[in-house]
Amino acid sequence: MIDHLWLIPAVPFAASLVILSLPNRRRTSAATLAVAGQIGALAMSVFAFLSTLQAPGLRTVQNFTWFTFGDNALRLGWLLDPLAAAMLMMITLVGFCIFVFSKGYMAGDKNFVRFFAYLSFFSGAMLGLVISNSLLLLFICWELVGLASYLLIGFWIERPSAAAAAKKAFITTRIGDMGFFLGLLWLYGRSGTLLFYDGGNGCLESAGLAMLGATVTSIALLIFCGAMGKSGQFPLHVWLPDAMEGPTPVSALIHAATMVAAGVFLVARVYPIFSLGAINGVTSSLIVVVWIGVTTALMAAVIAIAQADIKRILAYSTVSQLGLMMVSLGVGGVAAGIMHLLAHGFFKSLLFLGSGSVIHGCHGEQDIRKMGGLRRLMPITFSTYAIGMMALSGVPLFFSGGWTKEEILHVTAHWPVSRLPYFLLLIGVVLTALYMTRQIIYVFFGDRHAGSQHAHESSRVMTLPLIVLAISAISFSVVLTPAWPWLHDYLTDESAHFAFPRLIQPTLFLSLVLVGMGFALGIWIYRKAGVQDRGRAAETDPLEFAQPKLFRFLENKMWIDELYARTVIAFSWMSARFSDWMDRNFWDRLVRGFGGIGQQFGILTASVDERGINAGVDETSVGTRGLGRLMSAAHSGQIQTYLGVIAIGLLALLLFYAWLA
Amino acid sequence: MSSVAFVIIAILTLAAALAAATLQKLMHAALSFAATLVGVAALFFLLGAEFVGLVLIFVYIGAVAVLIVFTILLTRRDVGKDRGANWTGALLATGVFGGLIWAILKTQSVAIVAPHMRSISVKRIGEALMTSYVWPLQCVGLLLTAALIGALVLVMEEKR
Amino acid sequence: MTPTLQVVLVVSTALFSAGLLAALSRRHAIFILIGIEMMLAAANLNFIAFWRFSPQPQPPTGVMIVIFSIAIAAAEAAVGLALVIAVYRHYRTTSVDHFDQLKG
Amino acid sequence: MSKSVDQIFVNAKQWVLSWLTGAPGWVLQVASSLINIFALLFVFLTLFALMSVLERKILGRIQNRYGPNRVGPFGLLQPVADGIKMLIKEDIVPARADKLVHFLAPILIAAAAILALAVIPYGRNMTPFTIDGGILFFFAVGSTTELAVFMAGWGSNNKFSMLGAMRAIAQMISYELPLIITVLPVVMVVGSLTPDRIVAAQAEYTYGLVPRWFVFTPWGATAFILFFVSGLVESNRTPFDVPEGESEIVAGHMTEYSGFKYATFFMAEYIGMFAITGLAVTLYLGGWHSPARSLEFIPSYVWFFTKLGALLFVYIWLRGTLPRTRVDQIMNFAWKFILPMSFTCVIAAAVWHYAGRGLRGWLWSFFVIAIVYTALSMLLDTQRKFAPRVYRFAE
User: Fold this and answer.
1) Does the interface predicted TM-score (ipTM) exceed 0.90?
2) Most CB atoms closer than 10 Å: which of A84, A151, A511, A549?
3) How many domains are there within chain B?
4) Domain with B73 in it
């Protein structure tokens, strides 16, 4: 399998190239090709996954030399281990659902073909990222997914807001990638290799790690910068909510399920660098990871409460969940974090596709305050959305999100450094349930408003992926329960066995209480949302009515964008102005001065040229012209004359032969 | 190789060739040209190169001669007013003919009889074309394609 | 009695000269083309003759050359006739006397 | 017994030649050739006469009327009467015609058509002239027909003649290409240009039941159909008879011919038809081989002429059924459909060969042809919707 692993990303890539060459009107071919490519990748991923099942803890690697410079060779490679295989399965399955969904969602778009080309391109790049066995290859794919994300956020280029959001996403993640790149170079400088696993010589293996020494913390933190940018961790989270300007399937695939999880995946992949020299499972780099994760998780959850855009709420929820995963990685629960990543991939793409279906049904309306009462109009969307919401909120027992979240809380509770993250995460759980309840009430319950007046259920091609994903979100929990923690043990190379008593744990009740609290709070606050109530206008949020200032603060995303505008952007602006001034007034003058000298020299040489050299050349050319006139007289332009001359030449040769003989 | 047949075919061929060169009507000349090539093909047959003879008929009668008569047809308005011959050219051609004949007759080494030879099969020619001559074959294919496109471009109606 | 190489060469020379005659003495462009084709045919006849009369005629060298030569001659004829038609369209004549734009 | 019946003509020729024992080699050669030539002429001129009357009778049946039935039993002596009529008609040559060319054209066209018959194997050991490149000879001779048609058109000095000749040449050149390219797969698979070898390659029976004729392979069937259609065009038969479309240009290049010259053209057309169907039988339908082992006692030449007759019947049938196509339709059909399909046949034959010439090869080549056919039919679909036809007068 490892020999042909490269085919998995190659197939969507190839599909993308072919689609890109199609004319704009071949819509069916484009969609069919993209879906076919995705099915191919899915089938091969299943094979890859099955091959990892044959031997537990199997890690197969194939490396090759890209190019050599001097004595060094730059080597890249593929890698297949449980982590990669699980990611492959999730990406291809979710991707497949979303491709199918897009066919319905984008049906009316005039750039349908381009969309599918980009989407396939993204899929290829993401799959390449997951299976790469080299930090450099991973970085290349990392940048390619960034590019795809940029192209897709700005897919509706005619909207200024989309273009701005695309730029913002690209530049913000670039700041993180800068750190990543520096970390990569530093790592290469210290260890001399970028391969993860190379028969004991890779940078994640003992020999490679030993060479890193004291610099390991710095390298780890630089790499983490990249993860922060991609995964939307505070303070680089600002691009992710804006990225919702892209088409909803894009939000579901890239900005919820796969690409943003790449940061988490990266940290998990290079975890040996983070945990090198750990005492009791704690290193200074991991402490940074935990605190940033906690901050992100809580902050995003709080902001989500005050948002009105259905996709923005989900975006902040994504940021919050990514923070949660980071915390999990930071406190040592790598498997828990990845499990949550996989489960999150399913239910968050489900939620996004559901929101896409809602938006599609409401003819492009995105403001939840203008919806309402959709429960009866869109029954399939409602039921699948509710499943996604419960999974996200972490309702225990039946929903995949509940089990993984519990696992994270469990590992966080035992962090030796501080108990504070644990309590903050508990608050986060309550808040998650709260804002999701709010959203559901606004969108699906209550009276119909302007946006939902003429809503309709989406077509089969859109609801089918929803149903598939909903079933996945529920059935995925089979391999997550503590009774049979198959996925956990698959990721940590242990063999799972069934033990029913482990199912009932004290934290189960704790999360049941917390989630219940969140639901109750939500229902209590928002029971009258959308209708007039005791001096509150119908369109005013109950929370806004109670706490206008706090709400305003949250609605404007804690003024973080404005803070950046005043500080970072203002500074850049100033330095740009300064450079501009220097350019105009200092460097320009310098250049002009040199130019003047050159000009004077030119005038001097010109006079020499004209007086001295030209005269000689003129004479020569007059002579040549005379000669040419003489020669051209022989050219009559008559073909037969030329032929005749050739014949005369032949005769002359014959005569010469006769004279010789 | 029968001498009688050779002489008869040679005389017919040369007569047709002379007619092609001198006949007043262009169409007759073109048809004589076709007859000349049939004669050359017959000579090829006699010389043991049947395949080439067939190819010659196939290409020249089937394609080139038809092309020529088509061209005559397309430039018909000009056919009637044929002008007098260029006598210098005729003189030169005769001179070349005389010189070459003199040279051939004078060269003793060419007065030889053909050695015995098994007839060369089409299969061998095909194998040679596909093995040692495969590059020339490709080049000729390219050349023919280029000629085809070139001819088409040339005769396309000029855009005004 | 069988014909010798000399006889074949005389025949091909005569054919060549007839072609030269057509190419040199006639004013019509198509005659020139016919003449050139006849000269090429004479050359082909020479190739075949020298191959046939060589001590080892078994490798089909002459045959090969002639096959390629026929292909090239066909291409030449196609392009040449296309040229004649194009020139005729432009000048309304096919007499080579009038084609002297390249006069020096 | 059956063997001697099968070889009866071969033995008869040997017997005649045995009179000349002791004569010089070239005399024998000339005598043998003459016997072949006369046999060929006799058989095919008889066949021509028969065909001309049968065609009229079958056409008559198709059109719900009797054909000629006055001269002789069942009207079978009709061609004799026609021949006499043609011979004693006045031979008119237009005053401003190019007399020489006008005279030579029918001779050349008949000579080419008859020459083409020379390389076809009519039965076991019954090939008149075995040439190494027989197929090439067939096409080389066939290509001279174009020149003859042109001569007829030009020599008549008549606008209708010229137009007819141009149309004929245009469609003959266009269809000569697919004609040759559809032969290529057979030549490739057999590895020989000799008709005898091609027939010999189709001798066996798969599972002792299905004859190994090339028409039973996907590429062979496709090539056969394409070849048949191209042959139809080459011989200027309906539905591709625009060069002599009576309603448009009188009789095309034959407009200015009358009497025996016209009869010669007529004969050349039919003999060309025999030649092309004979080649089709040789190439795809197993030549003179019988369709089943149990029927091998019937002489080989009977089989050949049975197959030939069946194909000729299809020619007549088509003539009675199909309307005439337009010139642009013929050209479009040739360059956009027939030619790509012919190339596909070559590829499919290669696929068939490399997939083992068995069932696997059969399926693969079928697959190739099906794909190209589907793609072509999708590409060439004009998407024109025709209104339902209304028959106002034929109810």
Assistant:
1) no
2) A84
3) 2
4) 1-89
